[in-house]
From TrEMBL:
InterPro entries: Helicase/UvrB_N, Helicase_ATP-bd, Helicase_C-like, Helicase_Restrict-Modif_Enz, P-loop_NTPase. This is ATP-dependent helicase IRC3. Residues 18-154 form the Helicase ATP-binding domain. GO terms for molecular function: ATP binding; DNA binding; helicase activity; hydrolase activity. It comes from the Bacteria. Residues 245-386 form the Helicase C-terminal domain. The keyword Nucleotide-binding applies.
Amino acid sequence: MIVQLRPYQQEAVHRVLEWFRSTSEPGLLCLPTGAGKSLVIAELARLARGRVMVLAHVRELVEQNQAKYAAYGLEADIFSAGLGRKEAQRQVVFGSVQSVVGNLQFFEDAGFTLLVIDECHRVSLEEDSSYQRVIAHLRQLNPQLKILGLTATPYRLGQGFVYYRHLQQEAVRGDENSFFKACIYELPLRWMVKKNYLVKPVKMDMALLAYDFSQLTKTPAGYFSEVELDQRVASSRVTPDIVRDIQQRSADRQGVMIFCASVRHAEEVAGLLPAEQTGLITGDLAGPERNRLIAAFKQQALKYLVNVSVLTTGFDAPHVDLIALLRPTESVSLYQQILGRGLRLSPQTGKQDCLLLDYAGNPWDLWAPEISSPQPAADTELVQVACPACGFANSFWGRTSAEGEVLEHYGRRCQGWLAEDENAGEQCSFRFRFRTCESCGGEADIAARSCPHCDAVLVDADTKLKQALQLKDARVLRVSGMTLEVAMNGRGLKRLKVVYYDEGGISLSDWYALETPAQRQLFARVFLQEHLRAPGSNWSPASPEEVVAGEARLRSPDFVIARKVNRKHWRIQQRLFDYQGRYRKAVAAG
């Protein structure tokens, strides 16, 4: 039996085959929830010449993926304690990562050529994590192992994208050390809805009838504490009104999923709903009872399914047409996973859309989630910065003026990917911020420890400060502030005077001429290049007055190192920016 794939599923399979014909680097497919990842997995497993392992983190996904493979009329093993099966003999094995990592002795076969990881955004970079231990084991047996990840949300909390570059966008999106080296193929949610492969999400922000989660604090790992969540909802009297509102809005709806903030909160919500129409699922619920409630909901014997963070992935009930969010979501990934429960087509019920009622004030944009590196400060936003070298429109955290002009950004290197084809090329070499190698003069990332051009060890900032502090003719200024002024030099010529101050008022100064093109070019290289808050911008002041007027565009260094000249004058030798080390930085003036 051959299952008919949708055109985009066939395209996804084709892109994966093309990728692995040219490389063994891990790749990733990004397909929205409901796009049929299981069918793509099944087709790839069917086409594979060697053995295939398909991993997932929950038994529901293991069972779902195996069922789609079985639809081809093919047999596969299941290795999942939760499903009561530990089989590992057939060509294709569908397993839960927890069961496999605890029984690696069952997988001593060098014949595994393809490892597929569902919900691959859960793959950590930590070597002792479950996924990495399985990967290391299989790679030791077969160094050419192909690894494919599939997910609807290719990002991790506090990390950003889990892959390095995006083939279709010809852009670098994640860190060079990302486990997955490329997003091979992606389908946007908007496209899936427009082509009628998913139903339209209709979001309603219930601002007048909502919980106040604005004062919540996150744990160091970036998550909300369930204890604090519980305290917030327990102190609110709005829950009965919210439940009544859900019931009214769901009068003509067929399947309602409600996501709560804590177990106690879920119990309260379930208690306010009709008992004969409501199921309550928490992490502590025994397996048989959980399965019974889920089956009753899928058969529409129950209308409401209340849960606490346990049905965000691996749950497939196409008739769901209303989702109520009564909790804040720490990340757009969790938000999308929750909404994905209601976007599947349901020809049997004829649903036209999925209504999302948000009673928690979640800020995420479902259609175009803004994913980036961790936000450096609360008042920053994502800004677009064109690369002066290749023209690529980079997305960096930054700040803008009231008119929308970018005044500051935190970008280091251009995200553009320069390639003649998808399988070859390199990241644009332009760096917005960098440190210069003293051996070859080449540019390196500000956090690099060795030069990427000559492999010379780069002297770190702490070493430079320590060396300067040991010299009698050197001065280290812990910079508290910087001032700019138009001044006359000893010959009566107009110059830009830059003064750096420490906390005690001690100062060091520099003077710059901007009269000729050569002088302005030198100023741009030795001053603007490091001091600009938005490096790479086309701001080119032609006079000291213009520099002073544009002071908001400039930043001061963390430390300034000067050496004494002719036993009486101090000449600035180095300025240290973006300092992260053991020496204390100054408290900013003002």
